[in-house]
Amino acid sequence: MRGYLQAALQPLNLAALLTLGTVALSIHGELGDARPLGWTLLAAFSLLFLLLEPIAARPWLRAACYGVLALLALGVVALAPRTGTSPVILVILLAALAMDYPPGRVLLVAAALNIALYLLLAAASHPAPGLKVTLYLGFQAFAALVAHYARSAERARDRLALVNADLLATRALLADSARDAERLRVARELHDVAGHKLTALTLNLRALAAEPGLAGHAGLDVARQLAGELMGDLRQVVQQLREDRGLDLATALHALAAPMPRPALRLDIADDVRIGDPQVAEALLRMVQEALTNSARHGQARHLDVAIRREGSRIVVCIEDDGRLQAPLREGNGLAGMRERLAEAGGSLALSASPRGALKIDASLPA
């Protein structure tokens, strides 16, 4: 319920509601005996307009809702054609259409609506139907253009945020790879340089201990003991430096999800998960990225759960959101690309619908 209310109370919807209230007051006197029907049409238009975003996720349902809105708007105009304010409803409708559809489609709908508006005004013996339609056509064009460019700017901002998140996530993986490479270089240097010299020192101390004049010398025995302990400590340090800690997946995945207002990422990575191959990490990163995008666009999800576990020599990933599939499960370009990327990294992908109707992704990658 909270999600529906939040979607309904958008700035455009609130402005439209205020305008519809003004229209209702202005046509009150003209409606006369048709007042109950006029109020019903206005109330139905307002309610459907406010709930359009949360209830009409499927394209065909959204188009049907817009058709109903157009009929309701024309019905109000037919009941109150002479006041001059009822066609404002068409301005609101076309602004909403411009937010959802390309300009070509909006232009065709605008032409049909304005032809219907002209016929309604002419049938009501309006003194200047052509002038009235032309006047409102200017208002409609202004509102539609503002809405179109506002949506274009919003989409460009979202794309930029996703690209930035992608760069941050990739930078996190590259930084981890660079740190691992540096640790490996330092470990090799310690082993090859310091280890070699310590070995030489130990052999020389052993040779000195065999000399008759130095045999049993306390200082020599201490030096040999310290050299041995130092060699053990050096081996331990080298082993720790060479230990594969894996790439920091949590930081990269959270950076990827940060710019998206929804769904929120809920990540669960087992302690024994280690991924050192950048290609495998990249495939996992892109898989979660596509899952986030799908959940936001198609599932209307608020949360995305990602669980990463190790099973033998494989990394198992389970992804599920709390939304609902709006259509039968079909593998589009995004999911097909996800499958191809995983296959290149030696992984596999399985898609299914969860018991509550959400998209579930199960993947397996080499550890």
TrEMBL record:
Gene3D superfamilies: 1.20.5.1930, Histidine kinase-like ATPase, C-terminal domain (3.30.565.10). Pfam families: HATPase_c, HisKA_3. The keyword Kinase applies. Residues 281-358 form the Histidine kinase/HSP90-like ATPase domain. This is Sensor histidine kinase. The chain crosses the membrane at residues 36-52, 84-99, 106-127, 133-150. Residues 182-244 form the Signal transduction histidine kinase subgroup 3 dimerisation and phosphoacceptor domain. Keywords: Kinase, Membrane, Transferase, Transmembrane, Transmembrane helix, Two-component regulatory system. One of its GO terms (molecular function) is kinase activity. The keyword Transferase applies. PANTHER family: NITRATE/NITRITE SENSOR PROTEIN NARX-RELATED, OXYGEN SENSOR HISTIDINE KINASE NREB. InterPro entries: HATPase_C_sf, HATPase_dom, Sensor_HK_TwoCompSys, Sig_transdc_His_kin_sub3_dim/P.
